[in-house]
Amino acid sequence: MASNEPIKKKAAKKKKPAAKKAAKKKLLIVESPAKAGTIQKYLGDNYNVVASMGHVIDLPKSTLGVDVDNDFEPKYITIRGKGSLLTSLKKEAKKADEVLLATDPDREGEAISWHLARALNIDPESSCRVTFNEITKTAVKEAIKHPRRIDMNLVNAQQARRVLDRIVGYKISPILWEKVKRGLSAGRVQSVATKMICDREEDILNFVPEEYWTIEAELKDLATKKKFAARYYGDNGEERRLSSGEEAEEVLSDINGREFEITSVKETVKKRNPQPPFTTSTLQQDASRKFSYQASRTMQIAQSLYEGVKLGGRLGTIGLITYMRTDSLRIADDALNEAEQFLTETYGSEFVRRRQYKSKKSAQDAHEAIRPTSITIRPDAIKDKLTTEQYKIYKLIWERFAASQMESAVYRLTAVTANAGIRTFRANGSEVTFKGYMSVYVESSDKKEEKSKTLPPMNEGDKAELEKADSKQHFTQPPPRYSDAALIRELEEKGIGRPSTYAPTISTIVSRGYVQRSKKQLVPTELGFVTTDIMKQNFKDIVDVDFTAHMESELDGVEDGELDWVTVLKQFYPQFEQDLEQAHKNIEKIEIKDKVSDVICEKCGRNMVYKLSKFGQFLACPGYPECKNTKPIRVGTGVECPKCGGEILIKHSRKGKVYFGCEHWPKCDFMAWDTPVKDEKCPECGSLLLKKTGRNAKIYCYNENCKYERKIDKNEADENKDEG
């Protein structure tokens, strides 16, 4: 009998969902915690981003650490204090399925990655190395897709430099300790820099000024009745220098009451091209000129901009500039495209010109020039997210890069020659007819030319009359002392050092006491002269500019794979070893007496003397070791503290910046960055006045409830100006 129930289909077995394949856990090692924090946000939970805190492995401090007789083999050790960090990195590496090394994209960074690879048992031939020129989400993710092997040419270039500098420093320094003073040091780059500063000082001391006179005349064009300034040029159109007041008076007497005739009017058009984007040295120079920043300070600020700034919103945390240790002028095509579009939309196509700049031969062209990671992030739009210093440096970098992709500025130049008898005077006019890149950025050296100086329209044969004329005495000036900016420029031009060495070189020669700062100038000390003389007489190669530049070129050859690093050292060492043997025999003991102060040691009654440490000068009792009394140097201002009535002292922060604090610190917490004004009180409330220097120089009241302030002129602002 058939059933009326429908036939039931056999139930299909349900397939179990396939287990998700666990994502690989990756460890990414960078150098700094700030950079690690920025990158971690880009990569998410599958990545663990940690910092090596710079070098973990290096040569020992207590010994030479180089086997000179065995192909200069370095004896590397774990840096003291980094043992627990290295242990932690090893644990994290064992947990990870893959380890990527993302230290900085230069010789030092490559060496750090190589040391880490060996310590963490990573094959340096494997694709473990990641580099990026900028810390943005796109750049970091793209770099991680294309890891490479560790570049042993870069590693060997760093090893060669490290070993060479170690040999020079550790072999010469003990001689200086024995013959001159403990705590001194010599260095392959620092000794040359010190010599350059000493040589410049000798040029200044030996300079013999020559007298000369100039004559400025104010003429009035008779056709337009407009006045213009002209300067005495010579006689009968030939240039002549006036060397005495009598000669100047003769010219003044001759032109008095005479009519001038315009004998030549020439108009030309001149273009001024923008500067290329910044390299390390040009950034340090411009920051020194514009903000009086020392090179080390500029690099610290730039480092923070490179590693990442929290902007919030859609941008989140982002590195604002590309890598800041570079001597390359190359710009990536993507950056050029973005700049062209942005500048066209912002300023108009007539202001825009796409430009690629040529780097010098020795530049590491794998890097780019220093530029904003995105030109669309304008400085003013993120000002509230940056510190004052970060804003200044970012604005400088942004403007310089933007200007580098713009049209040239155009000037109309007018040169007028006017004669009164045989006496020839010249007047020059300059008018900006198209600002071009100067709409965005004006370099320090451009500022004079930026200002227009127009002359009245004149033609040959026109007449002018003399309104007044004055003579002025001058003397030729000696070459100026080096500033940070000037020294960096000359080191770079002569091929001494590399982008990463300029700032530490200057810091070292100042901290060692070979050079001291006087406002913006670097002035050699007696110690600097003594050590330089020893180096010139006994180690002439080490302080020879051409020899040092040649060694830099050799190190570049190692980096390019053209030279073997051990061979380079073998060529250097024999002559150096001979110089060492002779120096031990030839250098006599030199005693540099400590400068005696008028401060009495309260423990034993002796006059204390000035001593120098790596933190700067201090006072010490000359009775050491019987009396070990020391004290900081007290530099008073003669200004009364507004909080407790004590004296305000000049002090220095840990980074060397000058500030002003009360003598009763920490009981009294008065502190100011701006200079206290002596012998003047606020006319409105009677409180302390402070002097602010720089572009917006002013004197203002310390009392925050009082709004008194007044502008001051440049000369007044420059008195006692803090250059640190």
Describe the structure.
There is one protein chain. With 724 residues, the protein is α+β, with helices and mostly antiparallel strands. It contains 18 helices and 30 strands. The chain has a 6-stranded antiparallel barrel. It has a 4-stranded antiparallel sheet with strand order 19-20-21-22, with no helix packed on it. Strands 23-24-25-26 form a 4-stranded antiparallel sheet, with no helix packed on it. The chain is globular, with a radius of gyration of 33 Å. Keywords: DNA-binding, Isomerase, Magnesium, Metal-binding, Topoisomerase, Zinc, Zinc-finger. Belongs to the type IA topoisomerase family. The active site is at 323 (o-(5'-phospho-dna)-tyrosine intermediate). Pfam families: Topoisom_bac, Toprim, Zn_ribbon_Top1.
Task: Output the keywords.
isomerase; zinc; topoisomerase; alpha+beta; disordered N terminus; 6-stranded antiparallel β-barrel; single chain; disordered C terminus; Topo_IA_cen; 18 helices; TOPRIM_TopoI; 724 residues
